[in-house]
Design brief:
With 361 residues, the protein is α/β, with parallel strands linked by helices. Helices cover 30% and strands 24% of the residues. It is globular.
Length: 361
């Protein structure tokens, strides 16, 4: 009998996070998600955000959970057509996850990574105006890379940057674990070879920057020693006390704050003297903002592809990220250590503004 009781107690302890999640209160938020880069049926460009909505039991006004395959505006990977465009309505939170779009190469069974014809993508002025018309003083607006870069027009990009309180330098970049692997897109290799006249014989970890002018800067293992390091500023530590520093290995853009925009986190790189010289000659800073916030306008800009997450974790367990973060590596480490707790805090903040009182999360 004692063994049975002990077993039941252990089972209850193991299942308690799931039980707690099941009985905890659901919270309603009207959320608008824009993702124009859904070429495949994995929805990875906004998948990470929807996992957090499930974990926090954030639901739609009709009482249903948000469906990552339905509750967004962008491209339909099944019919391979643009979905019905968003039309203005008052929202609690707007998340522009990606507007890069879908290209003909993306629709191939095995994409080659080459530049190809744009099928659908870019932010249109009418769409942006519809989003801006959906806000009041309590609406949270979040945008992340790529929201206003190519193929969005320069005019619309400038308007978006002004609304978000940032200024884009024209540079984007990414860390690659192996410069000789297939993860390096063919268009990047072609641009490098055309610019330098050299063959692409690079191997090992490295860092690549690409400018809107076409200029390419590549740092190999002799010039950079690690991926970008996401690090909170002093203001960021106060704003997000549960967010941890981590390595970030996806695409990012090089931006700077405008006016009263606050910088809550930065990217830093472990560069050799030669690496510093290469960046300096190209006009690329060694350290630049990762998370920016306009407090008066309630906007956030993430200078990276943060919601992009291609895993299917168990999220309907209370405090699940506290478990995953101890075992996370590489891309998942950034998600569990950094992005997940940061979005938890922003969602709680949004709920509080909507309800007019602190939420119990």
């Amino acid at each position: 009998m004692k063994k049975i009781i002990v077993a039941l107690i252990l089972l209850l302890l193991i299942l308690s996070p799931r039980i707690y999640w099941q009985i905890k209160e659901e919270r309603v938020l009207d959320i608008v998600v824009i993702d124009k880069s859904v070429a495949k049926k994995d929805y990875r460009e906004h998948k990470g955000f929807f996992h957090i909505l499930d974990s926090k039991k954030i639901i739609r006004a009709d009482g249903e959970f948000y469906d990552l395959g339905r509750d967004y505006y962008g491209f339909d990977p099944y019919d391979q057509v643009a979905m019905t465009p968003f039309r203005a309505r008052l929202a609690d939170l707007i998340y522009v996850a990606d507007t890069y779009g879908v290209f003909s190469d993306d629709l191939k069974k095995s994409p080659e990574g080459e530049r190809s014809e744009l099928i659908y993508g870019g932010m249109e002025l009418l769409e942006w105006n519809e989003l801006m018309a959906s806000r009041d003083e309590n609406t949270t607006l979040i945008a992340e890379f790529n929201s206003f870069a190519s193929p969005t027009s320069d005019e619309v990009s400038g308007i978006m940057q002004k609304s978000l309180g940032v200024n884009w330098s024209g540079w984007v970049g990414r860390h690659f674990t192996d410069l000789s692997s297939d993860e390096v897109p063919q268009w990047l290799i072609d641009s490098y070879q055309q610019q330098t006249g050299d063959d692409w014989i690079l191997a090992g970890a490295g860092l690549a920057f690409v400018h809107t002018s076409g200029q390419v800067v590549v740092l190999d293992g002799q010039q950079t020693k690690s991926a970008a390091r996401f690090k909170l500023t002093t203001m960021g530590e106060k704003k997000f006390p549960k967010v941890n520093a981590s390595s970030y290995i996806y695409w990012f853009d090089v931006v700077e704050p405008v006016g009263e925009t606050k910088v809550y986190a930065t990217y830093e790189f472990d560069l050799t003297e030669k690496g510093r010289s290469v960046l300096h000659d190209a006009g690329i800073p060694e350290k630049f903002p990762a998370v920016l916030h306009q407090e008066s306008k309630n906007t956030y800009y993430f200078a990276g592809d943060y919601a992009d997450f291609d895993m299917q974790p168990l999220v309907k367990w209370q405090g699940v990220h506290n478990f995953y973060k101890y075992f996370a590596k590489d891309v998942s480490a950034f998600y569990w250590l950094t992005y997940f707790p940061m979005m938890e805090a922003i969602l709680e903040e949004t709920v509080e503004r909507k309800d007019g009182e602190p939420s119990e999360g």
